[in-house]
Amino acid sequence: MSDEMATSFGAEADAYEVGRPDYPIQAVEWLLEPVRDEAHRVADVGAGTGKLTRVLAKVTGAEVVAIDPDDGMLAALRDAVPGVPTLHGTAERLPLRDGSVDAVVLGQAWHWVDPAAGSAEAARVLRPGGVLGLIWNIRDERVEWVRRLTRIMHGSHAETMLAEGGPTVMEPFGRLEESSWEWSREISRAGLHSMARSRSYIITASDDERARIRREMDDLFDELGLDAAGTVELPYVTRAFRAISGRGSGAHAR
């Protein structure tokens, strides 16, 4: 996957904040369950505009440190979640001391990460018994119009990875635990367009391709009877994975 796509999101930070969903609080509680009563510092890596940051802070009451490689996304996060410390960095090179956090959590991000380097770096900054948590909100394509929407926009790296079996973590982590939640959110036509504009494929596409996507999305919304004033229920499946620092199995974990 291209570096251009991985670092493109700041160009559409506003669309990301408007168009992307928040994370279900139950899913974030599950991610942090092993350290829930003793989490003092949590790193949100690939934090973007703070979609996961704000839920982490609510669930744990801990200090949350937001880390992202894109200055535009961090600027949007500081506006959306005032008071959260922000640091420039990546999962492979975390700007944190050894053993300095109780959880390292990535929302919509691990599919951009080198699993070996990211696992080693997460283990370095986690205290023994700390949690590596990975979470994605994925549109539920069992619904026909949602499948059509994905065909118009193209699938994402995350969707491909999850369809092929899920994320991989490496030593010193053991096998990932997984759980999932089904839910939906009410979203407008403008919100759906914002969601589309926040996707890396569309951000880096040609003007002609972006115009084609918008036109075909509008055709779909017209068929659904979704006018500018209306909303539709967009179904999601949230998939979450967790592993505990210091519980490696000697093999790749998936």
Notable characteristics:
single chain, 254 residues, Rossmann fold, 11 helices, 24% strand, globular, disordered C terminus
Short description:
This protein has 254 residues and is an alpha/beta fold. It has helices at residues 3-6, 13-19, 25-31, 53-60, 71-80, 115-125, 144-153, 157-163, 189-197, 200-203, 207-224; strands spanning 41-45, 63-68, 86-88, 101-107, 126-139, 177-188, 231-244.
- The helix/strand order is HHHEHEHEEHEHHEHHHE
CATH C-level category: Alpha Beta
Low-confidence stretches: 1-7, 249-254
CATH topology: the name is: Rossmann fold
Could you tell me the number of beta strands? Answer: 7
The CATH homology group name: Vaccinia Virus protein VP39
Identify the CATH architecture: 3-Layer(aba) Sandwich
Write out the strand line-up for the largest beta sheet, numbering strands in chain order.
3-2-1-4-5-7-6
Q: Supply Rg.
A: 18 Å
Mean pLDDT over the full residue set = 90
Q: What's the structural domain tally?
A: 1
Q: How far is the first residue's CA from the last residue's CA? A: 20 Å
- For this entry, what is the oligomeric state of its chains? single chain
Q: Bin the strand percentage.
A: 15-25%
Q: Please count the helical segments.
A: 11
**Share of helical residues:** 25-40%
User: What is the global morphology?
Assistant: globular
Largest sheet: 7 strands, mixed
From the helix content, strand content and strand pairing, which structural class follows? Answer: alpha/beta
